[in-house]
Amino acid sequence: MKVCVLTDKPGHPLLVAADAVLTGAKHRVTFLNPDAGTGSPSPPVAPDDLADVYLLKARTRRALALARLLEELGARVVNSAAATELCQDRSRIAALAEDAGLPMPRTWTLNALSEALRGREPAESGYPLMVKSRHSRRADLVARVDGPAGLRALAAEWSDEPVVLQEFIANSGWDHKLWVIAGEVFAGVRPAAVGAAPDGARSAPLIRDLPRTWTRLALRTGDVFGLDVYGVDLLDREGAPVVVDINAFPGIRGPEGAPEALAALALRHSGPRAYEA
Hints:
Blueprint: E1 2-6, H1 13-24, E2 28-32, E3 53-56, H2 61-72, E4 77-78, H3 81-86, H4 90-100, E5 107-110, E6 129-133, E7 142-145, H5 148-157, E8 163-167, E9 174-181, E10 184-191, H6 212-225, E11 229-237, E12 240-248, H7 258-270
Helix pairs in contact: 1-7
């Protein structure tokens, strides 16, 4: 079987470990950087020489364009280009989550953060507010704003940035990260990016230590967004989980069994050719 990973970071620990699992089972793994070169991406191979499955780890415009092109040629791409693109737009995430009844903070969209200085911020939400870039990417904007002065200071630096404003979720101070690979849930916990995190380090909880409602929410999120490999960030609001972020194919580090789950997912999506001698 041939597996191709679309990424600019082939040395990521999850990918390296999954590569070892697959190659150890006599499968071939290659890595392709979609952002290499200039202009529009072109098919890396002839249709008859496509890999059995492509793992879409990159999320740039060129990566999405290449993934769509591969899908048009009949290739299997995980996650799909459409699902990956959806998860980069926080406004669309919030709208779909609301339609599906997933618990998320109330969200408002602005075409530019400067609009908030002209009375466009949602007065009914009050402060504090979370301000996030509408389009998720590396080094994007994610900040807590505690009042008008803080909003003005942030707008001075990010004036033209399309943003979403979200109600601030009072929480336990811990950010629960649930990663899902083909229905298998892995978990970690870190101090929340905003809020008053408890002192001291804390090891990742075992799945059996998490309430079932939390893991069911993570799995339903994948169903709603059409994802096979994804991360869900949950905050604890008075004992109930609230989804604050969804990432397609995140950088999963640490959980035991994650590389094996990713390798098994690749085999599952590769079709009958995966089991040819």
